[in-house]
Write a structure and sequence with these properties.
alpha+beta; Alpha-Beta Plaits; five-stranded antiparallel beta sheet; 14 helices
Length: 402
């Protein structure tokens, strides 16, 4: 029945547009069509047997129906986990727990797990405590991640906070939530936090040696956020990398270039190396375009036409007018330098220079202003008795002293 029903329902599900979350849950339900039908058939059989036979005859059918319903719900809910392997592990674990609870075997299993233990002085660690600890740590960390992402999105909507402060506040909240989750998990399973003093000292030594770069990048990220040297949306240059910052992370900064490449630059490099921030205090940057015209052109007219042509380009702001200066009398041209400002360097520098050059070409062509190119004159002189370029020494020439 599932093979017949699923294709029909899939056509209806694919008609849902603009709601990816709802479509994902519908697809998860669709992939469990056979389990839904199995549960409905079991439930119908159970009620039919309850009405026609002794209740004890339908006990096994009822248990199987409950287990099928539990698996169906757990399988659909586990689709919220992105990792397929992790989702499958969580689904199996939750179903085993639900099966033990339905069969009334929770107490027996917990007693067996608690009997398998390791003792060292006053400290006792059993399989039950270890299992509870793992479940609580994973669950609370997962909950802390969800709450942290939710609060981070809310902080992004606060317009009174600048981008750097938004990112810094979000990171602090996430770190605090993780610490609170770990403390709650350890306290709930009966572990004395004061007993972790020795381990914290060993962890500090390990951080000093093995995690030096990680901690350095983390501290560098906090320094970057505090001094507001870079923030999301800034256009920066670091070595051969030129692009705009998409995101600030705890360990690295995501920089996207014009060709679509995304560089993950460690925070430490942004602290220790020279970084050019094109939009640190002002997004306006100045660009230069040199050019030359022929000597029969009027330099005053050339400057006026160049400024007008540059001002006609779309990305040139009206607040800062371009300027054009004559720089030198060249070998074959009058050389000029056109300077203009842009306020969106993240949209590219080469393309705006190309647009300005095309505007200059069109304007000069319209006003009959020539752009010279270097040329050389080669003069060939002929002598009455040409001297050979080279002569070969022969025994006769050497004998005659030639």
């Amino acid at each position: 029945m599932a093979h017949m029903i699923e294709p029909i329902c899939e056509q209806k599900v694919r008609m849902v547009k603009g709601k990816p979350g709802l479509m994902r849950w519908l697809v998860a339900l669709l992939r469990n069509t056979h389990w839904i039908l199995f549960f409905l058939l079991l439930l119908s059989t159970y009620h039919l047997m309850q009405a026609l036979t002794w209740p004890s005859h339908s006990y096994f059918i009822g248990i199987v129906a409950k287990l099928a319903l539990a698996w169906m719900i757990i399988s659909v809910m586990s689709k919220a986990i992105r990792s397929r392997a992790l989702a499958r592990i969580v689904a199996y674990f939750c179903w085993v727990f639900a099966a033990l609870w339905m069969l009334g075997q929770i107490e027996n299993v917990t007693e067996v797990m608690d009997s398998i233990a390791f003792s060292a002085g006053n400290f006792r660690l059993s399989v039950l405590i270890l299992t509870k600890g793992v479940i609580l740590v994973v669950g609370l960390l997962w909950l802390a991640g969800i709450v942290g992402k939710y609060l981070d999105r809310k902080l992004q909507e606060v317009e009174d906070l600048n981008p750097s402060l938004q990112v810094l506040t979000g990171k602090i909240i996430r770190v605090l939530l993780v610490i609170i989750a770990l403390v709650m998990a350890l306290s709930s399973i009966g572990i004395d936090l004061t007993a972790l003093t020795f381990f914290s000292g060993a962890l500090g030594v390990g951080i000093g040696f093995g995690l030096q770069k990680v901690i350095s990048n983390f501290i560098s990220g906090i320094i970057i956020l505090l001094d507001k040297s870079i923030k999301p949306g800034d256009t920066i240059s670091l070595g051969d990398t030129f692009g705009w910052i998409r995101e600030l992370r705890a360990r690295f900064v995501s920089v996207i270039t014009r060709d679509g490449k995304e560089f993950l630059i460690p925070n430490e490099d942004l602290i220790t190396q020279q970084v050019i921030n094109w939009s640190f205090t002002d997004k306006m940057i100045r660009l230069d375009v040199p050019f030359g015209v022929s000597y029969d052109s009027d330099p005053h007219e050339v400057s006026r036409i160049a400024i007008e042509a540059c001002s006609s380009v779309e990305r040139i702001p009206k607040t800062r007018a371009p300027v054009c200066w004559m720089t030198e009398f060249g070998d074959s041209s009058l050389n000029f330098l056109l300077r203009f400002w842009i306020e969106d360097p993240q949209n590219g520098l080469t393309n705006i220079r190309g647009a300005v050059m095309l505007a200059l070409w069109d304007a000069f062509k319209e006003n009959n202003i020539g752009i010279p190119y270097p040329h050389r004159e080669v003069i060939l002189k002929t002598a009455s008795s040409p001297t050979p370029a080279f002569q070969i020494d022969t025994p006769e020439r050497i004998k005659n002293g030639e």
